[in-house]
Amino acid sequence: MNSFELITPASLAHAATLLEDGGRIAIAGGVDVVDLLKLNLIAPTAIVDLSGLAELQGIQARPDGGLRIGALTRLAEVGEHPQIRERFTAVSMAAAEAATPQIRNLGTVGGNLLQRPRCWYFRNPDIRCLKKGGDKCYALGGLNRYHSILGGGPSFIVHPSSLAPALIALGGSARIVGPQSERTVALEKFFALPAVNLAAENTLKPGEVIVEINLPAPPRGARSVYLEVREKQSFDWALVSVAVMLAMGPGSTVQDARIVMGAVAPIPWRSPEAEAILKGGALDRKRADLAAEAALKHAQPMSDNAYKVTIAKVLIRRAALCAAGIEAA
Ligand SMILES: Cc1cc2nc3c(=O)[nH]c(=O)nc-3n(C[C@H](O)[C@H](O)[C@H](O)COP(=O)(O)OP(=O)(O)OC[C@H]3O[C@@H](n4cnc5c(N)ncnc54)[C@H](O)[C@@H]3O)c2cc1C
Asked: Which of 36, 186, 292, 317 is the 20 to 30 Å CA partner of 22?
């Protein structure tokens, strides 16, 4: 590990100015940053500690019925927050299931969205894969059990965040402050496919800091669910996760639907095809099956990860039925 300076910025503006220098990196809970340092995957000249910035703290109800979640909010707090649990259930379920109690007490919402991929080729300091400036994604023709089935490469990482699919299913956006200006971006548009940017998984620019995530008021009759399957019940990332938000009308009619999968593509993967099947009709098991089939229609599994297609279909079916209050068979 190289030696680096640790800087405590005096303000948010100061942090943004410091981070404009691409040789520096922000730290929040430090769960992923410390891992990356230890693996020598990053060698910053300085680490800018965001943890004292008041603007990034807290959870507040918004006057329009939505919710503001500061970027420094710990996953544990998101998982346990009564309002999030009741009105933004998928977000609470995703946060409460992520990682371990210790990591949830340290890891923050901003850091969770920005954590780097878990791909074993990417994390191996001795391998110069496509994402690290090499000429090849080793998952193709290599060990690809945990890699993507959607998104089309040329790098086959999956996005590891549990929170991201749930926040996207609920229409979340990020308020981002940079050295000169600020912007708000729908989280659905925040992440970047490898075909757009091989080096980064999102559109955050040097100097930009995520200040908060905003969730709009859920539509009338909204219910949301997050489900995941992982290899072991203790700490692990999801093999596949699914977040579903349904706005239900009379007689099990679906007025609106948002379906987002995690761990199947290099970005959280929304399925407009599946949503279209659910919208406007009464939800039953058959329609849930059709939606699941549509969501995975374009999946292109590799040698070891076709099982993800099956899991994703089962989770979509279960999550949709569960959000509609129908027992899955
Ligand atoms: C054993 C284990 C199991 C895990 N299981 C899961 C799981 O099931 N699901 C899951 O989602 N995650 C899982 N994780 C990952 C963990 O949740 C994340 O690493 C953690 O949430 C990162 O948050 P942090 O605050 O520690 O981020 P840091 O490590 O501090 O930062 C991560 C990245 O975000 C940047 N950053 C942080 N905050 C900001 C900000 N506000 N603005 C701009 N940049 C910022 C940093 O520069 C860095 O690039 C697991 C981790 C471990 C070690």
From this structure: 186
